[in-house]
Amino acid sequence: MIKYTEDHEWLKVEGDTAVVGITVHAQDALGDVVFVDLPEVGKTLAQKDVAGVVESVKAAADVYMPVSGQVTEVNEALRADPSLANSDPLGAGWFFKVKLSDASQLTALLDETAYTELTKNA
Amino acid sequence: MSSPDQNLLHTPLYDLHLSLGARMVPFAGYAMPVQYPAGLMAEHHHTRTAASLFDVSHMGQLRLVGDAAAAAFETLIPVDVQDLALGRQRYGMLLNDTGGIIDDLMFVNRGTDIFVIVNGACKVNDIAHIQARIGQRCEVIPMPERALLALQGPQAVTALQRLCPGVEKLVFMSGGHFHIHHSAQDIDCFITRSGYTGEDGFEISVHEMQAEALAHLLLAQPEVKPAGLGARNSLRLEAGLCLYGNDIDIGTTPVEAGLNWAIQKVRRTGGARVGGFPGADKVLAQLDKPASLTRRRVGLIGLERVPVREHVELQDASGQRVGEVCSGLLSPTLDKPVAMAYVTAQCALAGTRLNAIVRGKPVPMEVSAMPFVPNRYYRG
Description:
The complex is a heterodimer of chains A (122) and B (380). By secondary structure, chain A is of the alpha+beta class. Chain A has four helices and nine strands; from the N terminus they run E-E-E-H-E-E-E-E-E-H-H-E-H. Chain A has a single domain, classed as CATH 2.40.50.100. The longest helix of chain A has 9 residues. Chain B folds into two domains: 255 residues, Gyrase A, domain 2 (2-Layer Sandwich); 78 residues, Aminomethyltransferase beta-barrel domains (Elongation Factor Tu (Ef-tu), domain 3, Beta Barrel), CATH 2.40.30. Chain B has eight helices and 19 strands. In chain B, helix 2 packs across helix 7. Chain B starts with 13 loop residues before the first helix and ends in a 12-residue tail after the last strand. At the A-B interface, strand 4 and strand 6 of A face helix 2 and helix 7 of B.
């Protein structure tokens, strides 16, 4: 199941864990990504907390926690090669994994149709 | 985000930008291309290795005409205008009465006039200011009918001389009239060998009716690709060149900004035409007593690969605030953070270690000479 936020993160839920990244639209708007700041593994963050940063040459954007939970893993390959966020935003360019503390938060997130609609009007 | 506001002005190349797939953004009241589909990074590297075409038609062009034009212009800028040789170009800045920079500009002695190029966001105020201050002594003629194209990069000369034989003879900071043959008509251009990237290159002033034809001709050259304002900004920062509004403004003097090189001896204390420009008392005092400066513009190179952007606070080793970043980004050429900042005089020496406070964490940086990337101007 893939869900989206209005802040242009995506999350893919596998059991009680979600993989989080930024959307195709977000990386396109930013341009060439040159730097990412990832959260600390083990840290517990609330939904909407700033979890990281993604920067291109021309702009910087915060990455928010799409759901509350504990960070279980971060993508070290992305830290070493931030351009993965452009070349494969939904795959190799993932940012971090989070163990959900409140699965009910998922229902309020956007599905693909709703997110596509949102970016069409952006 | 890619649909620009209805109220924005269009340059003569607006339709061309859209047809090339540019992402348009508001800039200086115009809808301008920030990048094309290749992206900022590719456009930046292409400019450093081949040649890029930039539309800078939002900038203001004007002419000062009359026997007294050079002397009159010297009452507005701390620069030697009267001794500038025919066909030569110089950098200058309009100052206010407290020595603050109203705008920075380039001008050429064309013999029949002084041809001036000012920043797009400032042009309305600049022209009003120039008109009010020296309009009685010379004609001040805005040129809104002229577009401005910049062709920049080590292969710019190869591309342009194919269309415009003879242009290769221009040296850095000089200019001349040229004709480019195009189907039945000639395109009349005024071309200077200058730019805002640190590379060899040209700026081409052309009538708006012929701007698109010229852009197509330039883009048809195998060396040339379009580049947007995003790459223009990263290129100029690597070249150590100031951006008006970020690195200089009415709150900074030319001396604080490290633009002393632009103030020739003849306008300084002991010179034949000392002072006589707005804010001269303050600017000359700063030139005569550098120790009186409380802050200076410096370059900074990041020692960790974390971008440091404008408004970031700078601290010394003891945690004291010593300044603020005015422009900063990850240099595409160096793959390191580079920045310009204003810091206290005692922190302005090259090699000084400072901490930039990024998201609450110190990022070590070192005061560095500029340009960050060596410039490659053609001086003959």
